[in-house]
Records
---
Amino acid sequence: MMQNKIISLDEHIIRSQRNLPYASGELSSLLRDIGLASKIVSREVNKAGLVDIAGRADVENQSGDDVQKLDMLANDLLISCLRNSGECCGIASEEEEDFKTIDTHKFSKYVVLFDPLDGSSNIDVNVSIGTIFAIYRRKTFDGECTKYDFLQKGVKQVAAGYVLYGSSTMLVYTTGRGVNGFTLDPSIGEFCLSHPNIEIPKSGKVYSVNQGNYNKYPRGARAYIDHCMNSGYSLRYIGSMVADVHRTLIKGGIFFYPATKSKPEGKLRLLYECNPLAMLIEGAGGKASNGRDRILEIEPHELHQRTPVFMGSPEMVEEAETYIREAELVAT
Ligand code: AHG
Ligand code: MN
Ligand code: MN
């Protein structure tokens, strides 16, 4: 019996474009280029244990993180794919101190921000890692892109997605009209639609937080963690935001990284981790906040700005926000 029709990522992007009368194909082309870059990164990730690209690169990035060789490789691969895309006039990366203009296409319509490899601490132990990307329409109209083309609220993203290098490689993306997941079939080198129209469960029984930092969290976050433990929820924490958020998206639950005493702004970065994942979570019917305000409404002031983050099933995020609000009332 004929297998159900395979819908490739490219085909899905083209079909989605047909629903956007004003679309002129540039965003579709850019998404396809990111899909290509993801396949190349996936190939390199899957042989990290065999060739000398695991381990530390003996450099630190501007966030003070030890950079892994695979961080740099993924970063370079994504930059070169976006340079050749023709649809992107500038990029910003976790691994680059400042944004980069793409001189050969400085009049193109879009800028791309990305975390080339998320969950780097898991590379050497063969645990799932990912890539996260956000696409914005540039705000300036001529000449080279400026910092202000990148410092836009998450609500201005025209597309966002992640690639999860796990037991299989999956790409999940949204252009604001539904969230769709594609699984890479290595035998044909195509991302094939495997999770159409993902909707996050309204609630769940899994909470995902680094419990080891419990004593460093603010009172409200600690109270919510106590509630999760007393409610018999399961704790699942992989240490790769993409993997923890993907599980939350599919099974329901809440992922959170509160502020700590050493990181009062939180650890996770707004522009290339929290905003794109928040667009996906909200697109699937979930919620994403900093414990009080919607992530997608946070005004960015610098490229590597951090934020506390609570995202996942709407009822669980609302519950966490209630604990945080009540703790603040007690404190006043
Ligand atoms: P990156 O590897 O891009 O720096 O991201 C790592 C992040 C995120 O993926 C994960 O949720 C978090 O760091 C884990 O932090 P802790 O080890 O402090 O829990
Ligand atoms: Mn990351
Ligand atoms: Mn990273």
---
Amino acid sequence: MASRVAVISDIHANWHALEAVLAAVDAERPDEIWCLGDLVGYGPRPNPSCAAVARRAGLCLAGNHDLGVLGELDLNDFAPDAVESARWTRGVLSDESRAYLESLQPTARREGVELFHASPRDPVWDYVLSAEAAAAAFELTEAPLVLVGHSHIPLALTLDGRSLDGGHAPEGTEADLGNGRRLLNPGSVGQPRDGDPRAAWLLLDFGSSRASFRRTAYPVERTQAEMRERGLPDALAERLAHGV
Ligand code: ZN
């Protein structure tokens, strides 16, 4: 089993954010990269983002936006800006990107780890952002470590016996993977929503039982310019500057 793993999620075709994160990941020399889904949707560069993840990630999940772009989820269930960007993405998606996205599933398992794009009770749509959703996530799994993406909020939760602890995990948060069970969300590479516009990711070290939440700055204005050039909804470009 890989001893050190970088976890990325919710890239959303933000190539400049992904490129910066992969450079920061490389500096840590992990054994593997895992991606929790939503490679595309919202952002302007779906094909290079898919190609890089296909090349680099040892494990990758499908997210709701990936499935929406593929036509496997009904776009009526998405917000209007997401629908507009999904339709645009469909029009530019290469055959290679499509084939890669079609090969992905929203859940996976590794030794001691269960992975979901959204949550165990609904791997595509459910947000783990409440104590109730977190309790359900632990209830429906058995692995010591549960990884989820989807909410774009980095999160570190611990279940020790019956007590549930933790919450938002800003840069610098370190979680102990030792006693009790953990549910971690790395946050979003390409569209962070916790007020910090820098790209979010997570480094797991199973050898020392540590999880470390990281943030990486990237040229937000370059992604915004690409979104405006392509006529994607302006609100989607604007929010990147604020991390909301
Ligand atoms: Zn997402």
